[in-house]
Structures are given as structure tokens and as C-alpha cells.
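Now for our specimen.

. . .
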Amino acid sequence: MRTPPLASGPEGPHALRPLLHTVLRALDDGARARGGPLPAGGPDAVAARLREAVGEALPDQGDPQALSTLVRAFAEGAADPAHPLCAAHLHCPPLALAAAADLAASALNPSLDSWDQAPAASELETLVAAALAAEVYEAGGDAGTGPDSLITTGGTESNQLALLLAREAYGGSVRLVRGANAHHSLARAAWLLGLPEPVVVPAPAGTLHPAALDEALSRLPGPLLVAATAGTTDAGLIDPLPEIAARCAAHRARLHIDAAYGGGLLFSDRHRPRLAGLDAADTVTLDLHKLGWQPVAAGLLAVKDPRDLTALRHRADYLNAADDTEAGLPDLLGRSLRTTRRPDVLKLAVTLKTLGRSGLGALVDQVCARAAEFAALVEEHPGFELHARPVISTVLFRPAGAGDTTVAAVRRALLTDGRAVLGRARLDGRLWLKATLLNPATGPDDLAALLHLVTARQATLVEGHTPR
């Protein structure tokens, strides 16, 4: 049997070229077959089509057409975040240049657990991590001397690391104090790290209440870690960060800010002021696979004091032997809890260098403007109710006079049709449809079409009936 060609090495580019043509054609065929933002028919129909295309997952004899067949089936059964009516989640359409850079990373396949596996990648990560940390903390200085950041798989890993660093900074124990609006990963991280049950502070308006936080900090014994949010998952709201930071300083509590969603506002001159107080945090979570238009995964944890990262130091002789480190080989094990780690930094670096702060800021401004336009359409439409004007790019709305059962049924019907993808959020005791607008190419006609589809689908349903 002839050895299949490899992706890198002298012949790698030649081997990849025809395969890329096959993949691109299959992606196009799959998207045409899908015909919308989501495959039609619901879970059972999608599963049946995929099973038919795949056949036997591990046959005795290989199929030379598998790449074309499976990529086409994968694309046909995908949710397409680049479709203007795919607006349910914090799931962005990735930039083509970032996806192209990701191909290079996959082909070369560096692993950031030792320098001799990733010489250039390790240096590139150092530079990009320092640059993004400086963006959060508005700090100067060279890499290694000022604020720093770790590249993670996303907000969940970043939040977990933030709790771990806080625990170690306090000598092995810390109590998490979080708003009722905080991301679920914070409570899970506390559980995973064996920390006490988190204290939940009310967020009656969807944001953490500073007075309630002050009361909690006054009665709780330390050490304490407060977690605030800049961009809630349900409505895209931003906690009052300056007031929260002041309370933390007064009570000597450590502060972590989960800005997985809202952190992208840093790139926009227009919207950056909404993150005032961010630089008071000891640690900050960022996700550039949200308002950064990166393929998953592209998370970061920014750290104000790089000395906190000493808690992650670990020795494995085959990866970072003491004499190798003393001889000048960089030690990468203290940059993550993971060992094998792909070079997600390359797509970040390509995007930052190609677009610059102004280019990324323009994309942020576009999606925020589309959200404001959509909110205005909802507000002016007699058949809909708007929850509130958007803070970032999330709009909550619902058919006027409809009950929660109808709201849920309309959403599921649109999903089954494959015509539009909307999320759901429960606020003020009611269920809302959620449009999270992360596609800079979405236009006014798309926004009007989304409302039209909701109206038309509601008309086919009756209260209490959930479509199959």
C-alpha cells in the first residue's frame, strides 16, 4: 500500500493543493444542498441524511472519495454562522484569512509543549499574548516585563484558570462571589477546583448590583474573588465595572472580569469606553472567536501581574529539563494546563497584523450598528415587543402578546424549517427570542426578513402546540 502523502514537508504543499480543491467544491455543494442557515428537518432528519452519506464509519477497505463525501455531508448538515439569519449564539463567522492561517497551523502541526516542537510558534505566542494583554491593561513594556496573557480554548478554560490563579495567590483557598448573571463556567470551575460554594449576588436588572456586592463583601470572611461580567451570554449586558472595582479595592477582594463577549469592544474607539474599569481586574477573560471573527478556538486570559503565572510552573524532564532551560531553551509548560497544544496564535497574529486595531474596530462597530438597527425595527413593529436597546450586539424580542410556550414553539419551528436560527433567554420571568448579531455582512433587508419569518411562523402555530 502506498503511504498517503503528508501535509507538511517538501511535498506537503503539492499534496494539499488538489485536496483543497476537493474540499472547496464539497463545501460549496454542501451549502447549496442545505439552502439556508441550518439543515431542514430537525435532529432525526439530519442524522438520517448524515448516516446515509457516511455508511460504514470504519470500513475494511478505504474509500478514496471519502474526503469529498464527508465534507459535503458535513457542510450540508452544518449551522452556517456566515448566513445572515443564523443569529442564535456567540458563534461568529470566521474570517477567511484566519481560516487560511489555521490551515497552515494544521499542516505544520506544532505543539506548544516544548520549544523544539514549536520554535517560531512559541515566540509568536509570546509577542501576541503580550500585545493583547497590553490592550486590556493599556500598559507599555516588552513581552515578559508587563501584563501577560495565556492563550486558551475559550471562556470556560480562561475562567477556570482565573479561579486557579486566585486560589494559589491566596495560598490555597478562595471564595468566589459572582453575580446571578455570571456565566455557568464560573460555578463549574469552583466545583472542579474544590472551592467553597460560590456566593451569588443579585442581578435584578441583568447586571451585578454594586450595593448588594458591597453588602456581601462586608459580611463574608476572606479571601474573596469577585467575578464580574462584560457581556452577558443572555443579553450582552456589562456590569458596572468601575463601581465593582471600587468595592473590591475597599474590601481587598481580588477581581476577575469575564469579558469573553464584550472584550472585543477594546478594538473600537467608539465602544471601548463601555469597558471602563476593565483594567482594574487582576485577570480578564477574552474570546476572539466571538467579537474577533476567529475559528474556534481563540480564547485568552489576560493577567495584570505576571508573577501570578508562577503558580502554573511544572517540570517534566523530557519537555523542560532544568539544564535545557538554563541553557536558554524557553519553558512552555507554565503557559497552560494543557500539554499538547495547537498553535491557535497563528490565526490571531495574521488577523491582528492584517486588519490592525482599526480594521477590527470597524467590524465591531458594524455588528453593534446592525443590532441597534434591528432593535429599532422591533420597537417600531406593532407585532413585537423589545426587551431593551442592545448594549453590544444582542437583541432580545418576542411576539407581542405571546406566551412563553408560543415563543419557544416559534423558535423550534424555525430551527426545524432550517430557515432561521434564533436563541432563547429568560429574563424578567419571561422567555425571549435572542438574536446575536456577529456577522458584519448582515444588512437591513436581512433584519427585516428575520422579523417576517418569525411573524409568518407564529401565524401557523397555536398556543400550546410544539411542532415536531
User: Anything to note?
Assistant: The mean pLDDT is 95. The chain has three domains: 13-78, 110-355, 356-459. Residues 404 and 431 are 5 Å apart (CA to CA). Residues 110-355 form a domain with the Aspartate Aminotransferase; domain 2 fold (CATH 3.40.640.10).
